[in-house]
Amino acid sequence: MKLLFIARHAGYFRNYDSVLRELARRGHHVHLAIEKHDSIGAFEVVDALARDCPGITYAMVPEERVDIWSTVSRFLRLGLDYVRYLDPFYDTAPLRRLRAYNRTPRWLTLLADPPLLRGPRWRRLVGRLLHSIDASVAPPPAVTEYLRLEQPDVVLITPFTELGSLQIDYLRAARLLGIPCGLPIWSWDHLTTKALIRDRPDRVFVWNDTQRREAIEIHGIPADRVVVTGAQCFDHWFARQPSRTRDAFGAALGLPPDRPIVLYVCSAVIEGSAPEHEFVQEWLQWVRSSTNPVVAGAGVLIRPYPTKLAVWQDVDLRAYGPVAVWGGTPFDEQARSDYFDSLFHSAAVVGLNTSAFLEAGIVGRDVLAILDPRYYDSQEGSPHFHYLLKAGGGLLQVAREPQAHLAQLAAAVRRPAAGPHPHRAFVESFIRPAGFDAEATPAMVQALEELATCRVDVPAASAAALRRRVALERIIWLSSRLLPRGATEWSRKVDGIERKRRFKAGKERATNEHRAERLRAQAARRAHGQQTREARIREKQQLREARGREQEQRQRAERQRAARKRRAELKHLIKKKLGLAS
To answer: Tens digit of pLDDT for each residue in 115-161?
Structure first.
């Protein structure tokens, strides 16, 4: 089976590391297709996969997919996503709505929510209209040709649920070619806080029954297309052991060895929220003013959010006692060990709302959150936050007041680490629905192998859709030329798209050439190293053989000397018996 896995950037593949390695181990060919470069060095993930598994390859997707209608499609899809955030649920948590509003063209925000017609019926009407226009046009020819050239048996796409995502074009192109297409849900919040899945993949792979209900009830995915596999991205945490002792870990960070460690894990708070580093300093003041001496004197380890590392470089925490700021994205094995050690050697884990809570729950640590109105949108205003409170009896302890939180923290640092797992019910409900000891990776690999046998209903009107795409592109191009240059969002986009396409194509070629050169150099170094090792082995073998021959010659000479000596002694004895000895 050949599997084509398309991701927005390379960092997304880290949640499927175990699945990709198992597919390669079973003899399948996996090609990782990356749409854009990220800013946090995630290519280490795919470099390691390709280096360790001969059946895994990777490359950037072609840039030729950027055309006029792709830009228009993105506008339409942003409008569709904005319609979703007009739901009354977001009246009390407006930052997600504001994020969608800021990304959507103004004429579409007015169309979605006009003063005289606003309401659920109008939103449904606008949503159907925008989706019908978008769906009536064929995917970019470059995307269809790309899939045709790759000839995969299965296509996977992640994350797919970004606002205004163009990844839906891959799904539509796969359907035109009769290729089964799956959507593995990347994280626990991607079905509640992101865009709607408007085109139905052949399979949607989810973690648990909660996400299964979301896929069916919120996104309208048929129940027979939703497969519960468990959260494969956490499999490697269950059997893991710390790489350092508690004393060595504390010494490396400058934290006292005789005091408990409280780990604060930072979050990806919604844009527009208060800066988290300011809140962390307030929390440190609470901790140091605690009447409990164990809490007040505890060592504190702050783990920054990966994209906010620079913020902490200018934060002075020396006034708060033993505090360390440390940690990065767990892309490689060393970073994973560092992260696990941080969780394992901590007495409690504190934060606002982050997936690190799930990992802390797996390790068996008490997990605490402070409910603060400044972060309402990221906490109580986010549906997935409530799963931490309810699933399997709940994982998270919450408090609104400092004293209540400090009491919870005091109880957490007193709890002995030994004993039954405190979050077993939550783990079995939310992370490993097949059982605490049942890995999710084999279940997902089996589901992907079954997807390859899925029958795809190929749409019949692809030629007409392609003609509509060409016609609409010409209309938009013409309107952009008739209007004053730069007078509208359309004309600005159309005017710059060729420039952008040429720039990206040139940059991509240069990047691919540089990466190919680097890979060739790595291959040459590996080949040279292999040749050197083989030469050393031959040299050692020859040396051993020479030494063996020398030893054999010495032993033969010793045997000959011993034989001569015995003969001489025998002659002497005979002469002595015969009286001939002199």
So the answer is: 888 888 998 899 888 888 888 777 888 899 999 999 999 999 999 99
Q: Do 170 and 155 form a contact (C-beta atoms < 8 A)?
A: yes
3-class secondary structure per residue, 312-341 = HHHCCCHHHCCEEECCCCCCCHHHHHHHHH
Please state, in angstroms and rounded to a whole number, the distance separating the CA atoms of residues 24 and 318. Answer: 49
Q: How big is the CA angle at 529 (ends 526 and 534), to the nearest 5 degrees?
A: 125
Q: How far apart are CA 370 and CA 180, in angstroms?
A: 44
Residue 485 banded pLDDT, cuts 50, 70, 90: very low
- Amino acid identity at 334: Q
Intra-chain end-to-end CA distance of the chain, in Å: 93
Rounded distance between C-alpha atoms, residue 161 and residue 157, angstroms: 10
**DSSP 8-state class, residue 258:** T
Would you say 209 and 431 are in contact if contact means Cβ atoms under 8 Å apart?
no
CB 505 within 8 A of CB 64: yes
Rounded to 5 degrees, what angle do the CA atoms 73, 32, 161 make?
35
- The number of angstroms, rounded, from the C-alpha of 427 to the middle of its chain's C-alpha atoms is 20
Tokens at residue 388, please?
Answer: 């931490």
Q: Take residue 92 and report the two structure tokens written for it.
A: 């009390």
What are the φ and ψ backbone dihedral angles of 578, each rounded to 5 degrees? -85, -5
Kind of pairing between the strands at 181-184 and 203-206: parallel
Q: How confident is the model at residue 478, as a pLDDT?
A: 66
pLDDT at residue 482 in the model: 59
Sheet holding 366-370, edge to edge: 323-325, 299-303, 261-265, 348-351, 366-370, 396-399
Question: Tokens 């490697």 label which residue?
Answer: 236
Helix, strand, or coil (residue 263): strand
With tokens 């000397």, the residue in question is: 561
Please report which helix (H) or strand (E) contains residue 102, including its range: helix 94-103
pLDDT > 90: percent of the chain: 54
Q: What is the pTM of this model?
A: 0.79
Spatial contact of 361 and 395, defined as CB atoms under 8 Å apart = yes
Phi, psi of 288 (to 5 degrees): -70, -20
∠ CA 67-69-71, nearest 5°, is 75
Q: Is 242 helix (H, G, I), strand (E, B) or coil?
A: coil
Q: What angle do CA 268, 272, 276 make, to 5 degrees?
A: 50
Taking the C-alpha atoms of residue 61 and residue 102, their distance in angstroms, rounded to an integer, is: 28
Rounded to 5°, angle at Cα 230 from 87 and 158:
60
Domains of the chain and CATH, by start: 2-67+140-230+442-451 (3.40.50.2000), 71-134 (no CATH), 238-437 (3.40.50.2000)
**Which of 303, 299, 226 lies closest to 268 in space, CA to CA?**
303
d(CA 300, CA 429): 31
